[in-house]
Amino acid sequence: MRREKGSVSQEDYLKAIWEMLEENQTPISARLAEELEVTPPAVTAALKRMTRDGHVRVDRNGQIALTQKGRKFAEHLAMRHQLAEMLLTDVIGLSWIKAHDEAERLEHAISREVEALLIKRFGGKKSCPHGVPIRGGIATLRKQGAVLLADLRAKESGEILCVYEKDAQFLEFLEGLRLRPSTTVDVLKREYDETMTLRVDGRTIHLGKPATSRIWVRRSS
Q1: If 0-12 CB within 10 Å is exposed, 13-18 middle and 19+ buried, where does residue 121 land?
Q2: What is the Cα–Cα distance from 128 to 30, expressed in whole angstroms?
C-alpha cells in the first residue's frame, strides 16, 4: 500500500538518494518511489522542494545527484541512523535483525543534545551492528578493497565486513546461518547458476546470488 503524499520527510528522500549512490545505483524518480513506497507525483513534488533548497540536481535524463550541501546533510542523517542502531543494540539489547527498522523511526526524534551524547558514547566504534562504516558508508568499504561475496572465486576466502541491513528477513536468514560481520568464509565451489558452496566455522552451507550479492567481504591474503 502506498503512503499518503507528504508522509515521507525530505530527510527520508535525501538518505534514500545517498544510499542508492553508495550502492552504485543511479537515483531516478521511479526507484525513489519504489524504495520509499510513495507515488510518483509525491517524488516529483519532493524533488522540486529539494532542488529549491539546494540539496539535489536533476539532469535532463531524470538522474538525481546530491549537491555538496545535500551530501553533507544526507551523511549526517546516515550517522544519526547508525547511532540509533547502536543505542538499540548495545544499550537496550535489541536484536540486530530489528535494529534498522526501529532506528528508522527513532532517528528523526534524536535531539542535538542526545546526538552529542551518543557520539561521545559510541565515538570509538567504526561501524554499525551490520558492519556499515560510521562515516562514509559502503563507499568507504570499496575504497578499502572490499568486494561482494558473489565476486569471490572458488578456493578464495574472505572476512565478512558488512551485510545489507534493510531487509529484516534477510538478516534473520543470516542469523540462522551464523553469518555476521567478522565471520570468515571459505569458498569451496561456485555453480553455473552462481550458487556458492561455503565453509563457515567447520560447517558447509550453500548461498545463492540474492544473498551473496548483499554481503561485503575482505579477501583473505
Answers
A1: middle
A2: 29
Query: What's the sign of the alpha-carbon dihedral 176, 180, 182, 184?
Result: positive
Question: pLDDT below 70 — which residues of the chain?
Answer: 1-8, 221
Query: Which residues are CB-neighbours of 79 under 8 A, at least 6 positions away?
Result: 134, 135
Residue 94: is it exposed, middle or buried by C-beta count within 10 angstroms (0-12/13-18/19+)?
A: middle
In a domain, 1, yes or no: no
Burial class (CB in 10 A: 0-12, 13-18, 19+), 123: exposed
Residue 4 falls inside a structural domain: no
**Grid cell of 83 as nine digits:** 547511532
Q: Whole-angstrom Cα distance, residue 87 to residue 106?
A: 10
Which residues, other chains included, contact 221 with Cβ-Cβ below 8 Å and sequence gap of 6+?
Answer: none
Q: Give CA–CA dist 24/75, Å, rounded.
A: 16
- Count of structural domains, the chain: 3
d(CA 215, CA 220): 15
For residue range 111-141, list pLDDT tens digits in order: 999 999 999 999 888 899 999 988 778 888 8
Give the model's pLDDT for residue 57: 95
CATH number of the domain to which 118 belongs: 1.10.60.10
> In degrees, to the nearest 5, what angle opens at C-alpha 71 toward C-alphas 70 and 76?
100
pLDDT of residue 221: 62
Beta-sheet strand order (sheet of 196-200) = 147-148, 215-219, 157-163, 184-190, 196-200, 203-207
